[in-house]
Specification:
heterodimer, A: ATP Synthase, domain 1, 2 domains, five-stranded mixed beta sheet, five-stranded antiparallel beta sheet, 2 helices, 43% strand, B: alpha/beta
Chain lengths: 141, 287
């Protein structure tokens, strides 16, 4: 049997996922991280994006996080997400709407502060959509 | 009829009280369910956060955040006291205050000065009477407390800690065990400390991305938020269950009292009737 690592994904609203995995991918601040079992301890912030948990070869669970903290211990990965959603539960219409709203604000570029916020919102909406697209592709193939 | 009317009014008034306590019991029961759900939902996050912080306390980062500085001598400490806004919830608040007073006394005997920051009007009222130095307070948070309103209150203390005016901050609240049991606890908020003394001696540290200072500030900030939020949520769940239990006891007591009074009332009524009959009979015999 392949080596596995324990993964816990929790958000302030509840426990999202807990179980073993062969590999975990997470959107860290400095770029996408792939974590295999026995990884050296690591702690980093997460960007809005998708956490993928590979439970078996070819079998992946997708979770959307809007940011948070990732802690890696050799036998344990903890994702402390601000909000984590099972990718299936993302409301596509809402994500598209949020993206449009953010783009409109960006086009206007009113104040400096609003610009920064809109950029953050846009990144979040885009990440949600990307997670959705990936699931859809997986279902078709 | 001796005291018949008085007893009747008393029974009516106790029944009135019983109606109120029964209504409060039911309100508390429904609020309790929601409060417990909120608490259960946020518990995993808080627990994992504590785990991460415990690991951090064992790690040896090159950047020492003030929250990790355990070497300071205790000269002045701060307590964040979480209490309920309303009363009528049994011994919930007084148990917490009793524990707190004992703790404060022990500290003061060692010459440590104490500051307070109160959440909930009961704690504020208590320190007004008890005479403590309250430096920040928050009341009327409602059933669903917001993190922002808590952080504002605790920030006063964290700032004082950052400037070195306070050497330690504790948080006192009621921990929810089950509906019947609430346990008052005092926990150390900052500096963070490793409770379990394990894997010592062996030198290790995290890889920090992007760098340890950024990450640590972020993580520790979130830790304080999560711990404060969790203690308020737990205290809320405790408050509702304690109120439900207290109100149930009050309704039961009122029921017992009514039964007892009704017995006395009936006895008095019968005695009066018997006396009347005796009077009539003896009057007839005399004629």
């Amino acid at each position: 049997m392949a080596m596995t690592i324990h993964v816990d994904i929790v958000s302030a609203e509840g426990e999202i996922h807990s179980g073993l995995a062969e590999m975990v991918f997470a959107p860290a601040e400095m770029g996408e991280l792939g974590i295999a079992p026995r990884h050296t301890p690591l702690i980093t912030r997460l960007k809005p994006g998708e956490v993928r948990v590979q439970t078996k070869p070819g079998e992946e669970l997708h979770f959307y996080v809007s940011g948070g903290i990732l802690e890696v211990q050799p036998h344990m990965i903890t994702v402390l997400a601000d909000t984590a959603i099972r990718a299936q539960d993302i409301d596509e219409a809402a994500a598209v709407q949020a993206k449009q709203a953010a783009e409109e604000v960006l086009a206007g570029r009113r104040a400096e502060f609003e610009y920064a916020r809109a950029q953050g919102e846009l990144a979040e909406a885009v990440a949600q959509l990307r997670a959705l697209e990936k699931i859809r592709k997986g279902k078709i193939s | 009829m001796a005291g018949g009317k008085e007893i009747r009014t008393q029974i009516a008034s106790i029944k009135g009280t019983q109606k109120i306590t029964r209504a409060m019991e039911m309100v508390a029961a429904s609020k309790m369910r929601r409060a417990q759900e909120r608490m259960r939902a946020s518990r995993p996050y808080a627990e994992k956060m504590v785990n991460v912080i415990e690991h951090l306390a064992h790690a040896r980062p090159e950047y020492r955040h003030p929250f990790m500085d355990t070497g300071r001598e205790e000269k002045r400490i701060g307590y964040a006291v979480v209490s309920s806004d309303r009363g009528l919830c049994g011994g919930l608040n007084s148990n917490l205050f009793r524990l707190l007073v004992r703790d404060i006394k022990a500290k003061q005997d060692q010459g440590v000065e104490v500051d307070f920051c109160t959440i909930g009007s009961k704690a504020l009222g208590f320190f007004k009477r008890f005479g403590g130095n309250v430096i920040a307070q928050a009341t009327q948070l409602g059933d669903a407390a917001h993190i922002q309103s808590l952080i504002g209150t605790v920030k006063v203390m964290l700032d004082a800690y950052g400037q070195g005016r306070i050497d330690r901050i504790y948080v006192a609240y009621n921990r929810f065990v089950n509906t019947m049991t609430q346990q008052p606890v005092i926990e150390q908020l900052v500096p963070i400390h490793a409770e379990r003394e394990k894997d010592l001696g062996h030198h290790w540290d995290y890889i920090y991305e992007p760098d340890s200072r950024d990450v640590l500030e972020n993580v520790l900030g979130r830790y304080v938020e999560s711990l404060m939020y969790q203690s308020v949520v737990e205290n809320g769940a405790c408050e509702q269950s304690a109120r439900m239990v207290a109100m149930k006891a009050a309704s039961d007591n009122a029921g017992d009292l009514v039964d007892e009074l009704e017995l006395i009332y009936n006895k008095a009524r019968q005695a009066a009737i018997t006396q009347e009959i005796t009077e009539i009979v003896s009057g007839a015999a005399a004629v």
